[in-house]
Amino acid sequence: MSDALPLRHKAPDHLNSTGCSIRYSEGKGRGVFASRKIDAQTVVEISPVLLFTKDEYDAHGRHTALDHYTFKWPNGRMALALGLGSLFNHSDHPNVTYTLDTHTDSIRYTTTRPIQPDEELCIFYGHKLWFENAEGVSTLLTPASDLAEDDGMGGLSGISAEEEENEEDMFAFPDGDPSDAIDEADLPFERLKLFEDPEEEAVEQVRTTKVWIVDLPEPRQTNTMLKWLKETSLDSPLLSHLKRVRKTPSPSSATSLLLLPYHDSCPPPSLPSLDPPLPQPYLADVPKTAALTLSSCKVKSSLWPTVYAPRRKGEAEVWERGRVRWACEAMRRVARTAKEAKDSGELPIVAYVPIPYSSAREESTPDHGLTRECIAHDTRKSLGHPLKHAVINAIRAVADYRASTSSEVSTTPAEFAQGELPATATDALTPDPLAIDQTDVETDKSRNGIRYLLTSLTLFTTHEPCIMCSMALLHSRVKEVLYLYPMEKTGGCGGATCLPRLEGVNHRFGIGVWKNFGGKDGMGIGGDVDA
Ligand SMILES: C[S@@+](CC[C@H](N)C(=O)[O-])C[C@H]1O[C@@H](n2cnc3c(N)ncnc32)[C@H](O)[C@@H]1O
């Protein structure tokens, strides 16, 4: 504790093979520091605990300095972490997470991102701090002073071991090599399929769309016409899954050119005058999407030469163990914060945007415009504002954080492209009048709205985002959304509807639903909110 331990005291040397040492931390007393670089997802400490019975603690411990160090344990007991465990200070932006293990009576501390030499390792105590935070006041959540009266938890006991035991089942994922590829079936969440990929292996199964075509009397007119298409901007990207030209072999040896998609009774395009003159364009049915298999490519190409694209861009990517554990920790944080929000009288709905796993691991990768995590809970109740949903608040928190730092969003056009539509997903998408013009994004980063972009970022939330929030997420260009509770009546990510599945939207994001969570209420955060 900072008062009791003046800075002139020398911190003891501490032998810890994971690279931790004890030093003094400005305004906080002793703390745990990295003596060298430490990777993300590293277990830096396993502290055995010393247990006190409820009676013993109530009679003595509670009235001593112990109360600033102890964790709640089952059966009313309190636990003091030995080793380094009691020396982790608090941060609103922790770089270490901890789990209580009631089977081995120990607490396990794991880094959530790479740690630089000399950086302090901090955990998150909760929102009801009993001391003045040397880091300043948190701007991410309701200030502690606005929270309900303390619920009797002392010191570090933001989460009791009973709750922790429940959490263990929900957010645990086996240890192992972080680079292991995890089977889809073993992921703790289920990914919603945005598109059915129907088998299109026979002509009658091929989904088609109407296009205008013209037969060229002379093959040498092909280049002239391709140039003309470009110049007139008729070269629609909606046809990028099809080859532009079809050459019919002898005896007819004809060359046909795809002109443009047919829309509600639009007239045939007027063509340039060439010598010899071009005939009238005609309508024909061509495949609506690229071919996913070689046999379907053959079938589709019998209608019109079709691009073979075995794997769709944006298709579910393989997750590594390290990333799954990162997601589990993020979801644990979401659930804990929701519990705290509930205790403070709010709806237990929380949304969280952590630093992406890729940049948490490889420091050289771009920061995707977010160098610090942002978390927010629903504030509809406290603010009496019907639009203050957790997701909207979290997007706002990201924008506010960016605004508060000098660095601007580092989103490049290439990164935009990552979050964009699959190259071959040309399922009759029409331009969205609300679409963000990427040229503007590139040329005018200071333009209003840029700070709200969640391109390449993952949002974790307790409850499926409602339709309003799902639309906000769509505009934010979020990469993916993972949630615990499906919202059948109001959800916009698979419940009442699924916005990223709708035709005509100009961005799609991945959706993952935590397995076996719907209906469960082990955390006491309630799956019954559907508003
Ligand atoms: C579990 S102890 C941490 C180790 C403690 N610094 C020590 O020297 O023994 C908790 C105490 O550390 C101090 N502390 C932890 N985090 C702090 C922070 N962010 N700002 C100020 N003091 C902090 C508070 O005095 C708190 O009661």
TrEMBL record:
Its domain of life? Eukaryota
CDD domains the record matches: SET_SpSet7-like (cd10540)
SUPFAM superfamilies for this protein = Cytidine deaminase-like, SET domain
What are the boundaries of the signal sequence? Answer: none
Sorted alphabetically, which PROSITE patterns does this protein's record hold? SET
One GO biological process term is: tRNA wobble adenosine to inosine editing
Extract the GO molecular function terms from the UniProt entry.
Answer: metal ion binding; tRNA-specific adenosine-34 deaminase activity
Question: Do you know which Gene3D superfamilies this protein is assigned to?
Answer: Cytidine Deaminase, domain 2 (3.40.140.10), SET domain (2.170.270.10)
What keywords does the record list, in alphabetical order? tRNA processing
Instruction: Provide the Gene Ontology terms for cellular component.
Output: cytoplasm; nucleus
| Boundaries of every SET domain copy | 18-126
Query: Which family does the entry's similarity section mention?
Result: Belongs to the cytidine and deoxycytidylate deaminase family. ADAT3 subfamily.
What protein is this chain from? SET domain-containing protein
Organism field = Neolentinus lepideus HHB14362 ss-1
